[in-house]
Amino acid sequence: MITKEELQKLLQSTETFRIEKTISTTNKDKFCEAICAFANDMPNSKKAGYLLIGIDDNGQRNGLKVTDALLKNISSIRTEGNILPLPVMNVDFVSFDDGDVLIVEVFPSEFPPVRYHGRTYIRIGPRKDKATTQEENILVERRSANFPTFDTTPCLEATLDDIDTKQFINEYLPKAIDEEVLAADTRSIKEQMASLRLYNMKYDCPTNAAIILFGKNPKYFLFGDYIQYVSFGGKDNAAPIIKEKEFMGSLMTMLPRIDDFIGDSLIVARPVPVTNLREEIQKNYPKWAIRELVMNALMHRDYKTNTPTKLYQYDDRLEITNAGGLYGNARPENFPNVNDYRNPIVAEALRVLGYVNKFNRGIARVQEELQENGNGKAQFDVDKLTVFSVIVNDNANAKTSTKTSTKTSTKTSTKIMAAIMENPGVSLDELSEQMGISRSGVRWNIDKLKREGVIKREGGRKNGRWVVIEK
User: Fold this and answer.
1) What is the average pLDDT value for the chain, to the nearest integer?
2) Residue ranges of domains in the chain
3) What is the C-alpha separation between 173 and 153, in angstroms, rounded?
4) Residues facing residue 312 across a β-bridge
5) Is residue 13 very low, low, confident or very high in pLDDT (cuts 50, 70, 90)?
6) For position 400, what pLDDT does the model report?
7) Spatial contact of 81 and 157, defined as CB atoms under 8 Å apart
8) Edge-to-edge strands of the sheet including 83-84?
9) Of 8, 134, 196, 221, which has fewest CB within 10 angstroms of its CB?
């Protein structure tokens, strides 16, 4: 806060973009607009602005006596929620023989534009006014320069108490940091989190990424941070709801539950006739593919919105929808060959935990798995600006896709047979690399060849060999 001597100098100057004088003690709208304008710091001076109450335009005091009630009333402006993001400000007063001066010191915000009742106010020289669209864009760009992504932005309302620090220390750090380095690390937990962009030391608070990954109650800060699962007894939203469930909590807590739910509740095995005398057990969806699509939705979604990630199950398909369209360099014409990360810190954490690989191979592998399982390719809707969605057909309803898949798997089986005949000791990993498909895809084709009585395995997993059965 400024000193009495510094205040004297301010009183002798005219109103500028850093000073507003008023004798009113009741015009709260005027106070809030001034605070909002100082916080936006349109000239980018990086200096505090001052609202001086008890002073007329000529710099003369009007005999104001500052009371506790007046101090509390002005101080409460910060937390009333009418100015967002919350301004950083100090409130104090200085006494003179001819009256008091109440001083509201407002610091430039690193999160502009700051709005009062949804309107952005700025100062142009001594004048306060509403910002134009172009002026708002300048403030938006300034905010983006300070914090390039949402997950690196400080969550100013949160403290370290809002983070499950035991989970971070015991479950995440050992996977994120080399064992020897971690053993020699004597830094505080705040410093350790800050090194991973999970804590902002300047504002002494966790980042949004920390809330998403390790928060005790992320939904308190990020209203849309949960998964909404609904099972409909039909083919559209008008059908009766069979089951619904919400998955909430930090990603560290929620992801294992989602993993189990996909395997235990979404994936259903059923017998499928192959001939008049033989059946095969087939699953409605391949678990890995659905898991990958859900993980991608959580990794790439826009966490600023109030919309949850939606996992809707119908009689003939699954639909996964999340807030936030394609981001950055990813566009409809280059998807899925080009990828970009809306939440790079969250993406890195999911890679550390083994849920995603970040090598831009996920979608290609998903399509392979779905084709091999008879579902046909997933259908991605990438044309919407604010929503990303994917539809996966139940393989019992994907007749055209099943035919395509059968042809594909027949070709793959033939290639696998040729590789086995050339090298009977070939491993599943080697076959996966040679065929250009996933390991589980190779296993599916191998199992198919075994059931058809074409090949068999002799010996153990390490030293065994494949044998082609002569007919």
Assistant:
1) 85
2) 4-146, 160-221, 227-397, 401-468
3) 21
4) 230, 319
5) low
6) 41
7) no
8) 83-84, 115-116, 119-124, 127-130
9) 134
Reported as type and span, the H/E element at residue 445 is helix 439-451
Instruction: Please give the pLDDT value at position 67.
Output: 92
For residue 35, give the 3-state DSSP assignment.
helix
Among left, alpha and beta (phi > 0; psi -120 to 50; other), residue 241 is: beta
For residue 380, give the H/E element and its range: strand 379-381
Supply the DSSP symbol for 13: S
pLDDT, tens digit (0-9, with 9 covering 90-100), for 385-431: 677 888 999 887 654 444 444 444 566 778 888 888 888 888 888 88
Backbone angles phi, psi at 312, to 5 degrees: -110, 130
> What single-letter DSSP state applies at residue 55?
B
The secondary structure of 57-69 as a DSSP string is TTS-B------HH
Q: Where are the alpha helices (DSSP H) in 196-317?
A: 208-214, 218-221, 251-261, 287-300
Q: Identify which of 286, 333, 317, 288 has the alpha carbon closest to the alpha carbon of residue 389.
A: 317
Residues in the chain: 471
C-beta contacts of 235-243 below 8 A and 24+ residues apart:
235/314, 235/315, 235/316, 235/317, 236/314, 237/312, 239/314, 239/315
CATH number of 227-397: 3.30.565.60
Architecture of domain 4-146: 2-Layer Sandwich (3.30)
Q: Determine what percent of the chain is predicted with pLDDT higher than 90.
A: 37
Let me know if 289 is exposed, middle or buried by CB neighbors in 10 A (0-12, 13-18, 19+): buried
Sign of the Cα torsion 397, 401, 405, 406 reads: positive
Q: What is the pLDDT of residue 411?
A: 66
Record the tokens describing residue 43, joined without a space: 């000239």
Spell out the CATH class of 401-468. Answer: mainly alpha
Q: Is 319 helix (H, G, I), strand (E, B) or coil?
A: strand
Burial of 260 per CB tally in 10 Å (0-12, 13-18, 19+) = exposed
Token pair for 239: 């059908």
pLDDT, tens digit, for every residue of 277-320? Answer: 677 778 899 999 999 999 999 999 999 999 999 999 999 999 99
